[in-house]
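Deliverable D5.2: sample structural annotation.
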Amino acid sequence: MRSQKPSPLVTTIVTSLLLLSMTGVSAREAAAVAGTPASAPAATSGSWLGDVRSLSQAGAGNRRAPIEKRLDGLGLKWKAVAFETAKKQQGQNLIAEVSGAAEAPLLLFGAHFDQVDEGRGATDNASGSATVLALAERFKHKPLARHRVAVAFWDLEEAGLLGSSAYIAQGSEKPALYVNFDVFGWGDTLWMMTPDANDALVGASRDAAKASGLQLSAGREYPPSDHLPFLKAGWPAVSYSLIGNEEVPLILSFFKGEKTATQAKVIQVIHSDNDTVDHIDAAATARGVDAVERAIRQWDAAQN
C-alpha cells in the first residue's frame, strides 16, 4: 500500500491497508489461516501464516521467489510478465490461472508483493499476497460455478501502482471483476472499497462477514491501492482489508491530511520498522479469509 498523502481525487475513491502477525497459534487456528475450508486437503494447514513469514523473510528484492514456489506447490501454471515504465522503471508481475472453464468470465484476485525499504513488509503487503494464495488454493480445490479464477501478484505498487497499471496498459484480459487485497492482518472489520454500495457482492460480503463474526464497512472512500488503475480504466474492481473498525475513520482522516487525537494501528505499522509478523492476528485473519471466500461463492452463484 502507498502511505503518502494522495490527491483529493484518489482520496475520494480508494485506500491503504495493513498487516497480521502472531506466534504460537493453535493447530486449529493454523489450519484456518491456511486459507482452506474444512473439506480441503489437510496438507495445506498453516500455509497462510507460512506464506506471510516467507515473504517477510525474503527481503525487498526477493519476494517473488516464495510466491513462485507456493504456486508450484499448488500445481498452478504461472508466468512472469515483465514491464517497463516511461521512466525506465522495470518490474515483473506474476499471473497464474487457477480454475474454471476457458470460456467463463474472468474473476481476478490480486495483491502487490513489493515492499518499502523499512521493516519486513508483513502487513504491507505479505498479508494481502498470502490471502490471494489462500484463495487460489481454495478455488483450485473447489472451482466456482460461473467464473474462471486467476490470480495476480503486482510489482512496484509502492512506486505508484505501476504493476497493476502495466497489466492494463499491456492489453491484458479485462476481468468481469478484479478483487484486490492490501493490508489484511487483524481486527474485527472487513473493509471493502466498492464503487456501488448496492452491488450484489456488497450484500454477499455483509452476510459472509456476519457469519464469520466480523463487521463489514463498505464504501468508496479507501486509500490508494491496485484496484485504482482498474477503476480508472473503467474496469470493475473492489478491494478488501482486514482491520479494526475504529481504524477506518482514522485512516480516512490520515489520507485527507486531517489531524486526529490518536493514530490508527495500520498507520503506525506500515512503511516503518514496525511492519513485521509480530503484529498479525492469525485467528482474525482466518475469519477474514473465510468471509471473503463465502462472499465470492454467494456472489458467483447469483450471477446469470
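Annotation notes: The chain has eleven helices and eight strands. Residues 4 and 213 are 32 Å apart (CA to CA).
The annotation will be released with the project's public dataset once the embargo ends.
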